Amino acid sequence: MRKLENSELERISIEEFKGADKTPIILILDDIRSLHNIGSVFRTADAFLVEKIYLCGITATPPNKEINKTALGATDTVAWEHSTDVIEVIQKLKNDQVTVLAIEQVESAIFLQNFEANPTKKYALVFGNEVFGVSQKAVEACDGCIEIPQLGTKHSLNISVTAGIVVWDLFSKMKFEHHK
């Protein structure tokens, strides 16, 4: 086994990324404090050709030196938009027939492993503040909630880790499972 060189990774250009068919996933970051978390989510969104990121509330926007430290250029590839009001974004997407799901620990949440992604649907995933999570108002505005089961003492994951887990899971279910 040999580790691949960077030149062997078949990376696409920014123009090719922008013209590529996107994964029908939209990310909504609401009141994210950490610039490094925001940058990490951009990088995850780039890796899986996510359609768009909405940066809501106090979530900082590019260009930003601290976001760029973890985004590594993904702010140039992934489409994004800022909105002060997460509820307006959720309502707009629902009106556009997007299924909006909060990623949060709530009553009757669907565990991630049990969520059946439909490859013909478009999903928006709402991620909340590092301390308070997704607001109750945003949870109530969503079509449903997904929870990552956790067994340790913290029952809390970093927002960028959570986004990576959930985006990979939905991406894999949408891209690979219907080919079985």
Summary tags:
180 residues; alpha/beta; seven-stranded parallel β-sheet; 6 helices
What does this protein structure show overall?
- With 180 residues, the chain is an alpha/beta fold.
- Helix content is 33%, strand content 20%.
- It has helices spanning 14-19, 35-47, 65-71, 86-95, 136-141, 159-175; strands at residues 23-30, 50-56, 79-83, 99-103, 110-111, 123-127, 144-147.
- The protein has a 7-stranded parallel sheet with strand order 3-2-1-6-4-7-5, with helices on both faces.
- Strand 1 (23-30), helix 2 and strand 2 (50-56) form a beta-alpha-beta unit.
Which shape, going by the Cα principal axes? globular
What is the chains' assembly state? single chain
Number of strand elements: 7
Q: Stretches where pLDDT falls below 50 for ≥5 residues?
A: none
Order of helices and strands: HEHEHEHEEEHEH
| Fraction of residues in helix | 25-40%
- Distance, first to last CA: 27 Å
Global mean pLDDT:
95
Q: What topology, given as strand order, has the largest sheet?
A: 3-2-1-6-4-7-5
Strand content: 15-25%
Query: What's the helix count?
Result: 6
Structural class: alpha/beta
Rg computed from alpha carbons, rounded to a whole number of angstroms: 16 Å
Largest sheet: 7 strands, parallel
